[in-house]
């Protein structure tokens, strides 16, 4: 699982730069199996009325990947109220032995 302080840092940075249009909140960390995990993230705000709302989701993935060194993919998108709930999946890689 991702450390809480890293997630808080990512959320704070994202909201700092996108907060007038989009706010993110981590709802839950999920574990699908031993190596596959995910994040349930709520996006709210008027961004969803823009012509390219998926760009806000992509910006969040880029920030996640930069801060964690992991690769994230969208598993599902659910529209809810004035935003979306996105489920991102990531696979923890085992370190290579030299």
Brief overview:
The chain is an alpha+beta fold. The protein has two helices and four strands.
> What is the CATH C-level name?
Alpha Beta
The shape is globular
Q: Using DSSP, what is the number of strands?
A: 4
Describe the strand arrangement of the main beta sheet, using strand numbers. Answer: 1-2-4-3
> Please, what is the average pLDDT?
90
Any idea how many domains? 1
What structural class results from the helix and strand content? alpha+beta
Distance from first to last alpha carbon: 25 Å
Total helical segments: 2
Describe the protein's architecture and organization.
It is a single chain. Strands 1-2-4-3 form a four-stranded antiparallel sheet, with helices on one face. It has 98 residues and is of the alpha+beta class. The protein has one domain (4-73): GMP Synthetase, Chain A, domain 3 (2-Layer Sandwich). It is built from two helices and four strands; from the N terminus they run αββαββ. The longest helix has 15 residues, at 4-18. Strand 3 (72-80) and strand 4 form a beta hairpin.
